[in-house]
Amino acid sequence: MTKRIVAYRRIKPHHLEALRRDFHVDHFAELDSADDPAFRQAMAEAHGLIGAGIGVTPALLDASPQLEAIATISVGYDNYPVEELTRRGILLCNTPDVLTETTADTGFLLIMAAARRAIELAELVKRGDWQASIDERHFGCDVHGKTLGMIGFGRIGAAVARRGALGFGMQVLYANASPKPALEAEFGAQRRELDELLAESDFVCVTVPLTAETEHLIGAHEFSQMKPSAIFVNIARGKVVDESALIAALEKGQIRAAGLDVFEQEPLSPESPLPHMTNVVALPHIGSATHETRDAMAQRAVDNITLALKGEHPVSLVNEAAWAKRRG
Ligand code: NAP
After folding, report:
1. Which of 123, 251, 266, 292 is catalytic?
2. Which terminal CB of the chain, N or C, has fewer other CB atoms within 10 Å?
3. Does 234 contact ligand 1 (Cβ within 6 A)?
């Protein structure tokens, strides 16, 4: 029997072709929601699901009785009920490592753009308002030699910090669930309690995953601990930050600026004041969005689902506990 895969959203023809060599593939290129009737119908027979950005609920799992494995084209898996998947013996695979450096580039882009006011001043040029030499009203602040505080010091956090320490001579502080002695030795990073890191850092950059523990990890109290000159950067997930507290901190000058790739609601609501604030650089969740990296992520997801449906251990398995009781 040929196993069936449901693929959704933008997956390139060569990846679909690779999957079709071994499996029957139903592709939903423009899927808006998991409630789409044709998608639901395909899921009733599917052994595998590959894509990114659709929340998987227990109701969808109930409607997918043959599902053996899910390959998300992302490293974050906050959209998936991991315990429920494990309970049912469904493998969940993600795409770590291949997006680390690109996402760290995005983090540094936001650090630089917010510090040097690059977007605001480029807009000034575009509007034709560059009519005299700029003066201190337009000056930014230095990045090199400053203190970079990383909240979350895993793959992406370390890659951002490495850029700061080795490229920009920054001192790196980190707050993380576990100590990272190898990174301390590599570029002199120092571990701090969260409040200490917030008080000491010139740049605060968040790279923790979104979990029940990290939801609204950064709120009014945390912004009140930061320097008024601090620049806050979030490349993790919007819900790690209490966005109304961030807006309040920016409005009252409790912090200098923010660089944001992720938001509590995505796409950003038209009512949000954030894109209109001159001290905010807002990007549309582009952390890993380069041709090369998105291709590598899709390839990793294809490898994961192919291995899983052939009964072999996937390259990147999130719920290792599901392996022993996997379906199929
Ligand atoms: P990772 O290697 O697992 O790193 C996450 C780090 O956060 C780990 O070091 C972990 O500590 C730490 N951590 C977890 N919970 C914590 C807590 N409650 N308090 C303090 N530290 C905690 O993951 P990654 O590959 O760097 O990715 C991180 C996140 O970035 C992803 O989950 C995703 O949400 C986000 N992301 C965003 C984009 C984007 O487009 N903007 C792209 C890629 C990823 P331990 O080391 O002790 O486990």
Report:
1. 266
2. N
3. no
**DSSP per position, 63-118:** T-TT--EEEESSS--TTS-HHHHHHHT-EEE---STTHHHHHHHHHHHHHHHHHTH
Does ligand 1 have an atom closer than 6 angstroms to the CB of 213? yes
Q: Tens digits of per-residue pLDDT, 66-116?
A: 999 999 999 999 999 999 999 999 999 999 999 999 999 999 999 999 999
Q: Model pTM greater than 0.85?
A: yes
232 close to 258: Cβ distance less than 8 angstroms: yes
* CATH fold of 100-282: Rossmann fold (3.40.50)
Q: Which of 78, 103, 196 to mutate to test the pocket of ligand 1 (most atoms within 8 A of CB)?
A: 103
Write down the domain spans for the chain.
4-98+291-327, 100-282
194's CB contacts (< 8 A; 6+ apart) are 151, 175, 222
Distance, CA of 276 to CA of 273 (rounded, Å): 5
Backbone angles phi, psi at 269, to 5 degrees: -65, 140
CATH class name, domain 4-98+291-327: alpha beta
Q: Is the CB of 117 under 6 A from ligand 1?
A: no
* Residue 189 CA from chain centroid, whole number: 22
Query: 135: which DSSP letter?
Result: -
Give the residue from 102, 89, 82, 51 showing the smallest Cα distance to 212. 82
